[in-house]
Amino acid sequence: MSVVALASFDGNTKLRECTGICIESSCPDATCLLTSINLIPYTWPRRTITERLTIQVRLPNDKTVTGWIEDPERYIDFFIVKINNVAGIDAAHLSHLSLDRVMQVEPYRKVAAVWRYFDSGKLKTTSGVDLASVCAHTDEKMLSTCRIHEMGIGGPLVDFDGNFVGMNCSGTEQRKTPYVRRPSIRNFMWLRGMVSEFSTLCCSVKEDVEDAVRARIKSRYGGSCFLMAGGGQYINRLDAIFKKDILRKPFKCAGLEMDRSAYSLASESSKRLASEMNQSVVSLASFNGFAKKFSCTGIFIKEKACSATILTSASLVRVPGSAHMIDDNLRIEVCLPDGFRVIGILKCYNLHYNVALVEIMGFWRPRTIKISGDPVTSSMDVISVGSLFAHRRLMAVEGKVLIGKQSELDCRELCVSTCKITKAGIGGPLIDTDGNFVGINFYDEEETPFLLRDVIRRLLNNKWSSTDDSIVEGVENRWLLPGGTDRNADAIAAVDGNKWPLPEPRRLFGDELVCPPHRSHLRERHLPQPRRRCCCHVGRVDDHC
Q1: What is the spatial distance between Cα 353 and Cα 458, in angstroms, rounded to a whole number?
Q2: What angle do CA 483, 454, 311 make, to 5 degrees?
Q3: CA–CA separation, 310 vs 344, rounded Å?
């Protein structure tokens, strides 16, 4: 591939310079160069670019030629600059990059950013890791940890096998660089007739790609709509919004009806506190291939030099119905506050308390929360915060703490609040009216259990004060175990643990939409029952198993 340097001029005044790369196209008489829209100042009217500005291109052989941009107003994320095929521009000096080559995306693959200086012609590179999400939309921008010079904007991002990953588009001050993905660039050029249909190589994998896209859509939005044929409505869905969300104005459409009093009745201070959690809260999802298995909320609790740690629920990776096992085949993705999606790594977990720590690379200076505050008292006002993974939407709902009320779940150290959340809020923070962290939320149909910050602080102190990952039997030391199940299956299989069943999505009809039925099918509450529950499948609870 050939990396070039480009500069825009207004007369003899140089305005901007960027890097570009030669790409294959269907233009017979011109060579196409992919570069950033930063080549032209944003304040410059695009309709006058062709008439008033000059674009100079410095080639790898140090020759300088003049280029042009056809219809500059149609571009959004990048420009295609064309240069005439004249003497001096030949295959000996320019190799054209193909956008048709399909490659498999691997988490945290090593990549390199390349750029060229316009004045000196020198070529520079820097390396990092790709933070791309496997399931991200084609048009979503991704991140890498390559730190580029300002002149590197518009340059290629390649993996260590020489495959073109994307075009670096911005981000010189931060320790991560956004880039436009190769498929997005190719789709744009194909729609405008600048490249031909998919090659034979691409056609061989086209069906697989389409199947993967369909699986991704199904994993994001489910196989059925909120309203089903014949009436009725599903509840207990993974990506359901908070009905009494205080951060969204009321609306009604297609069976989605928010509580019309929640937004108007919530105080401005509550809305402000919830909104301020936006930079601390993330959404997570676990995938098996393209199939989404679980999604929930998490919160930043620690930062390092080039990574960040997220506290969330271990339901993200738990084997359904198991008190001791996680699924090692799952891939974790994290949707950041800015909308970017990156790969997460399970660092450690505690299945007894159903909490986990997930670490991500390439996210610096997050707004972490402090796990401390005033004592939790009964009837204190609290706010539960959650985030939808599919849309990166922050949600919040108000409620009160019910000290002394026992949760229906096994863990005896859980407390209960009246905040009515959905499954999307699992792992999300519960905060008080001063913004202090109170605990981490879990889900039940009739109440919202939460684990107090004192328990979480004790677990974190045990983890961060330890010097190794040695296995120590016992409920609380289970936190010290690493992410893999190969080391914990035999060590703790004999130890009875808490199960954290989740109700399955189900359909409500008629009056049930207004007043859901009592969960008599789960437990006869008027009869004395032991607290131990056997859960053979997620959503199925049977005390007589």
Answers
A1: 12
A2: 35
A3: 9
Residues 6+ positions from 376 with CB-CB distance below 8 Å: 401, 403, 415, 438, 439, 452
Query: Residue 116 is encoded by which pair of tokens?
Result: 């060229």
Neighbour-count burial of 202, counting CB atoms closer than 10 A to its CB (0-12 exposed, 13-18 middle, 19+ buried) = middle
DSSP 8-state class, residue 220: H
CA dihedral 204, 207, 213, 216 (to 10 degrees): -110
Element (H, E) at 455: helix 453-465
Q: Which residues pair with 449 in a beta bridge?
A: 416
Which residues, at least 6 apart from 48, have a Cβ–Cβ distance to it below 8 Å? none
Q: Please check whether residue 214 is in contact with residue 220, taking contact to mean a CB–CB distance below 8 angstroms.
A: no
pLDDT score for 284 = 94
Q: Can you name the residues that pair with 180 across neighbouring β-strands?
A: 167
The pairs formed by 70-77 with CB atoms below 8 angstroms and a separation of 24 or more are: 72/40, 72/46, 72/47, 73/46, 73/47, 74/192, 75/37, 76/37, 77/37, 77/141, 77/169, 77/180, 77/184
Average pLDDT of each block of 10 consecutive residues along the chain (545 residues)? 90 94 86 92 86 92 91 88 71 71 74 94 91 68 85 92 88 72 87 68 43 48 43 65 80 52 76 90 89 92 84 91 81 86 87 90 78 81 91 88 82 90 93 92 88 90 54 43 42 56 65 48 38 36 34
Q: Which of 74, 63, 54 is nearest to 11 (CA)?
A: 54
Instruction: State both tokens at 447.
Output: 């109440």
Q: Using the CB atoms, write b or e for 475-492: b if 16+ within 10 Å.
A: eebbbbbebebeebeeeb
Tell me the pTM: 0.62
Cβ contacts of residue 214 below 8 Å, gap of 6+? Answer: none
Q: Rounded to whole angstroms, how far apart are CA atoms 150 and 154? A: 10
Which of 82, 188, 184, 92 is CA-nearest to residue 139?
184
Measured distance CA(197)–CA(200) in Å, rounded: 9
- Distance CA(470)–CA(73), nearest Å, equals 60
